[in-house]
């Protein structure tokens, strides 16, 4: 039975194979006279299945094959070897009992597991080195951890870390769907896994996305929006009118940008009034002239902001009249 064919690698570009739970990436370096290549069979596999690293185009001068676990040829990492001269197979310290080496140098992994993750190196006896296999776990959906769940504007720095830590993955950060790079207040760690925001502001809420990538897969976290506490800003009192006629009603409202929303209270000429966002006083008289102060308070930042509005009650007293009209037939 012929194994599935795979698209060849050209110019050092990596060939990629995607597995359901374990992924395999193979590399080889073209040579002017020969191309030693390794093809994973089957192209798609899963944990607890068998995978064959099939060797193609081995040199006719090759007299032995040595397989190692890792990107190394240290004796302690040898899995198995085969001598064409003696037709003898020897197992090494890294042999698990699930590997079978064929006379053409191809290596069979039986019942693969996640523990098989890592590089595998094929060394021929004539010292042609070919990094030939890298088991890669399909990337899980990442998660973002935050060192401060409720940072305050202008006071706190914030570190966002993409979890889990995966040695063979690269990390990419985005804010508002735009790739993040280092800046005056943004710093990425050496492996891009941690994003640090210095002196956060209300404009840093995001949303943020963390993406993990390896040569055979990519996985992205759902957008995360930060909860940054700020404010309150100086309150704004509406309406802007300052001169009001006697006998009318006074309706003032106070607004201040704040997260969480601010709590409001009023005072008149230093005397506390209502603890509400809106203040209503009916049937005004000249005694209602004076300074009206709105106080906005943020219970998280523990900041207070005040705004004063001077109201003058003057002019003629006005009353509301109603007239009923009718027409007799």
TrEMBL record:
Single Gene Ontology MF annotation: protein tyrosine kinase binding
GO:BP terms for this protein?
A: regulation of immune system process; signal transduction
Which Gene3D superfamilies does the entry mention? Immunoglobulins
Q: Which PANTHER family match?
A: CARCINOEMBRYONIC ANTIGEN-RELATED CELL ADHESION MOLECULE 1 (PTHR44427:SF1), CARCINOEMBRYONIC ANTIGEN-RELATED CELL ADHESION MOLECULE 19 (PTHR44427)
* Leader peptide range in chain numbering: 1-35
- What CDD domains does this protein map onto? IgC2_CEACAM5-like, IgI_hCEACAM_2_4_6_like, IgV_CEACAM_D1
**Pfam families from the entry?**
Ig_2, Ig_3, V-set
For whether the record's keyword set contains Glycoprotein, the answer is yes
Q: Which residues form the Ig-like domain?
A: 140-227, 232-312
* UniProt family annotation: Belongs to the immunoglobulin superfamily. CEA family.
* Keywords tagged on the record: Glycoprotein, Immunoglobulin domain, Signal
Instruction: Please identify the protein, giving its name as recorded.
Output: Ig-like domain-containing protein
Family matches, as InterPro entries: CEA_cell_adhesion, Ig-like_dom, Ig-like_dom_sf, Ig-like_fold, Ig_sub, Ig_sub2, Ig_V-set
| Organism annotation | Spermophilus dauricus
Q: Which domain of life is it from?
A: Eukaryota
Q: Does the keyword Signal apply?
A: yes
Q: Where are the transmembrane segments?
A: none
**What cellular-component terms does GO give this entry?**
cell surface; plasma membrane
SMART domains assigned to the protein according to its UniProt record, in alphabetical order: IG, IGc2
